[in-house]
Amino acid sequence: MSRLLEKKLSRRRFMGISSCALATVAVGSQVKVLKALAKDGHVGELNNLPTQDVYTSCGMCVNKCGVIARVRDGVIHKLDPNPNFIKSRDMLCARGNAGVKVVYDPDRLKYPLIRVGKRGEGKWRRASWEEALDMVAKNMNEIAEKHTRAGVMFASTEGTFQEHFFLQLAECFGSPNTLRHATLCLSSNIQGLSATFGTNPTPDVLNADYIIMSGANRSEALITPDSIDMLKGDGGRRKLVYLDPRFTKTSAKADEWYPIRPGTDMAFILAMVHVIVTEGLYNSAFIEEMTVGFDQLVPHIEPYTPEWAEAECDIAAADIRRIAREFASAAPKAVYYQGRRSSFFANDTQMRRAMAILNAIVGNWDTEGGMVPNGKIALSKHDYLAPWYDDVPDRLEGKSIAYLSEKDGSWPVFRDRVLEGKPYPVKGMMVYKQNVLASVPNRAKSLKMMEQMDFICTIDITMSDTAWYSDVVLPEATYLERQDPLESLSGILPVVAFRQPCIEAMFESKPNLWIMQQIAKRLSEEIAAEFDFTMEEHIHHQVKKNPQILKDLKTKGVYYEKTEPTYGATRGKRLRTKSGKIEIYSEKYAKKGLDPLPVYQSPEKVPGSRYRLLVGRHAYFTHGTTANNAYLHDIMPENTLWLNTAEAKRLGLKNGQRVKVKSSVGEETLMLEVTQKIRPDSVYMAHGFGVLSKGLTNIHGKGGSDAALIEEKVCPISGNVAMHETFVEILPA
Ligand SMILES: Nc1nc2c(c(=O)[nH]1)N[C@H]1C(S)=C(S)[C@@H](COP(=O)(O)OP(=O)(O)OC[C@H]3O[C@@H](n4cnc5c(=O)[nH]c(N)nc54)[C@H](O)[C@@H]3O)O[C@H]1N2
Ligand SMILES: Nc1nc2c(c(=O)[nH]1)N[C@H]1C(S)=C(S)[C@@H](COP(=O)(O)OP(=O)(O)OC[C@H]3O[C@@H](n4cnc5c(=O)[nH]c(N)nc54)[C@H](O)[C@@H]3O)O[C@H]1N2
Ligand code: SF4
Ligand SMILES: [Mo]
């Protein structure tokens, strides 16, 4: 009852929506355009189609860079960066440029499809939206009746705000089981940093004089503006120290690179803290004013000497000492950069805590060149009232994770429970913009989980592996064809991003909101009522308190409140931690029985004749999902397995030959790349190949899948997966 009351009280429906229409482009038949494109590779004379430049934002990755789409004769010819979008510094990356090929991709989903063969057999029939949607709603309702509403799970990844409507559907349907990308990505980061600072701040890369990056390959794992600011010449002012078991493109740009033993970053950090504390290089005035727990830290770090760390992480004690001194003397314009993905090892949350503590003791908090708390431009929230159901149980994972996010869940833990059918069965799977079979470790287990489902529906733009194993596949319009809600991106310079259709949606693809509304309508009248609004109404509601936002978006494609950073707003104020201060010692963790200060655990030793499998980003691809893009495929047609030159020699393996890579959960075959760019104890492969789907015609049958090899270990504090705890054997294929 209390949940209902709470919702009723918080309910605010949007009212007073103005009639001002959003600018959209009306276009003729795109199918005609596609045919013209196919004939001779470029567009001929096609009259009566619009020629204009449209402000929108990139949808190829999380950064959402500002874009100007050059539409000529109704065809998107080129995507250019929007110079007003200062976050992306007037640039688009390779993937951003290749976005054109997402629209004009022969492999894209064109119509709703219903499976006719066995799951994964790839036999489909084209269906009408009416029939496909009826089938989705009927199955959802049947599963709810048989197994409670929690028997349908909802898997999704953040995109521009449309994910919101999918999550709304889950809540209105009455399922607590939403599985979002966070525990595959950055949950440990958010947990570790927030437990210390009360928030996950942004390192001020542009203004820092000294940056240490470990496990954040910014030259390839692109995050704006950091990647661009790192690469841009600064006249030698800034120093970059980079720790990565691989020689990446970031190593190439670094002043110093250390091929650290994987999983030992915490040893390096604690040794730095040791040096800074024992040599009195910390900022005592700042520690006094802004932190709690420094007194407990002092004895805690005593055993963590640089000599001890050297044996753990393969970095010379003298280097650790020197780097610690340089870092402290550059502070507060010095940051230990925490990166984004923190799905490395099971102790990742505590490792991120160590990073936060190191930053805190040199006093770089909320200062120029330091760790800056994010600003965010307020948009009015879309509230709705989910119907009340009496019989819905709690999330399937229960209390297995110390700080489980109710909205994100923890994928591997959840999947195990589904397979056990305990404490209750989950028999329906709704997937939106997530590729479970490529992104969740141990693909064979995900397939098993899918096998036991009564019904699976995937909403995607292309035939991903997950779509390939579904019963109904629904085609969403691509990001260049949709009006999306406004998205407020937090950061040092917060910004509102804008996405509007550049052309009319092709084939029978539909935007997410329409799909959600159509499903809602078929589920129940009560649910349908909560979806009774248009996108235009939604957007006007978002800017209701500040209509200038929409005016700027229409004329500049972007909205900023300030274009220069401001610092120090949190000084003298309470932070969002229990003590109101930076928590070096975490009372909160102590009460939960967790280590209140980060305690180092040595990673499991690599067993003889095996290698640690590492994963990491490639600048040409986004996750496991853009490798099939024609332009990107052209520059990298398949992935390889990196193996150190000396090891290849020892195993008698040659560059370019096929090898079998075997872990305890899978076996993949791919081409060997013999290189000195990796430690002898580790191997590496890019993500996105070895697909199961024959609907990805460029890459099917090429390369290997990392998701098929990685075992599913999990951080017990955040629920984040730990992807680098898998050992593999390499054999000639
Ligand atoms: N093995 C391995 N696994 C990983 C990682 C790794 O490095 N290695 N990285 C992890 C990290 S950090 C993350 S963030 C996750 C991300 O992994 P996911 O959560 O799976 O997200 P994405 O890979 O971005 O996209 C998933 C799907 O969205 C589809 N898609 C793209 N655009 C649209 C659209 O506009 N509409 C719809 N409906 N669908 C669309 C794509 O075709 C794809 O099938 O993966 C994690 N998993
Ligand atoms: N081009 C491109 N850019 C992206 C994305 C993308 O898919 N493509 N995805 C975006 C997303 S969702 C995320 S989460 C971020 C991820 O961006 P990052 O946080 O930078 O993550 P990764 O590139 O996955 O891993 C970084 C590096 O860690 C190294 N590494 C492995 N183990 C260890 C270790 O134990 N210690 C240290 N020090 N290093 C280690 C790997 O070799 C790899 O080069 O990138 C974002 N940007
Ligand atoms: S970094 Fe590249 S893919 Fe990501 S939003 Fe920007 S241009 Fe698009
Ligand atoms: Mo991520």
Structural overview:
It is a single chain. By secondary structure, the protein is α/β, with parallel strands linked by helices. It has 4 domains: 3-103, N-terminal domain of TfIIb (Single Sheet); 113-185 and 379-495 and 503-559, Rossmann fold; 202-372, Dimethylsulfoxide Reductase, domain 2; 611-732, Barwin-like endoglucanases (Beta Barrel). Helices cover 31% and strands 16% of the residues. The protein contains 26 helices and 29 strands. Strands 5-4-17-16-15-6-7 form a 7-stranded mixed sheet. The chain has a 6-stranded mixed beta barrel with strand order 22-26-23-25-24-29. The chain has a 4-stranded parallel sheet with strand order 11-10-9-13. α10 (265-278) crosses α14 (317-330). The longest helix is centred in the N-terminal third of the chain and has 19 residues, at 129-147. The chain is globular. The model is unreliable at 1-33 and 35-47 (pLDDT under 50). The structure holds ligand MGD (2 copies), iron/sulfur cluster and molybdenum atom (MO). One ligand MGD binds next to loops. One ligand MGD binds at residues 61-62, 185-186, 214-217, 220-223, 243-246, 248, 260, 262-263, 265, 339-341, 344, 614, 616-617, 619, 621-623, 724.
